[in-house]
Fold this protein.
Amino acid sequence: MNIGQHILELARKKKGKIVMPEGFDVRVLKAAQKLTKDGIASVVLPTDNVKEIEKIAYEADIDLRSIEVIKIDRDILDKEKVKDFVNARIKKGTVTKEEVLSLLKSPLYFSMMYLKSGNCNACVGGAVYETADVLRAAIHVVGTAENIKMISSYFLMIPPEGHSFVKDPIIFADCAVNPDPQATGLKDIAIATVESFKRLFPEKQANVAMLSFSTKGSANNKILLKIQEATELVKSHFVGRSDVNVDGELQFDAAVVPSIGKRKASDSLVAGNANILIFPELNASNIGYKIAERYGGFRAIGPIIQGLALSVSDLSRGSSSDDIYLISAVMLL
């Protein structure tokens, strides 16, 4: 499977529109140009200085004619959504209406409200803004998805050609947001990750492994309790879904290597066949994806935010224009 082409073709069919709050960055401009040229999506770049973006684009030999560069203006936002945002922020703390409204003058908050107003399908940022800023704006404006209290992230891990047993992409979660989620947090992460997987691969069986250093009670330690509890919560959530299998706790090798999975958990539908790996905490997941990327030759696409009510990205600040291009396509799915 050419995963890049698969994602691009799915996105192209959506005929979506993306708002990008970092049009002052050349990488973003290059990605926007390619998205529109290839017919993947239309792109909006909000700014308080249109001429600045035009100058940056001119110097980088980027054609803006197919890209919509707009002046930040609250009048094009949904007035009721803005009102709700203002009231919610005032209730949260000691801020005035004017202070809250001033947030919407920034490209980041304006873009989130542009998305919330129904003017586009996704907001792609984070190439310049820090993760904390992107997530704060997203939570304040967009909010979390129904039945989800914890936002999280995933990496789409693409195996190198000729890998000995992994042929198709695997999802790792959560590798970037939550340091030490408890059982209910792991449940939210797993549920959001399954939904992300099904958007990418709607016809595929989702096999979710709740990872641990133990397989089915092979070890006995109190830190396993949250994984065991989370596993039961996730199983309960997906009762009746024949397209989703969940199991845990499973060691990594038991989850992904068929021969080991059969030996360690012979009655499991997931063991040896996992394509969604839920790590117990951030140390393990972040180290794990980097090992797979650097030692194993996997391509890591992400982190991609999930669990929000609408589609928002948090790009790595080291993203290339090609990374931004592909992740933008993912955000439309």
User: Anything to note?
Assistant: The chain has a mean pLDDT of 94.
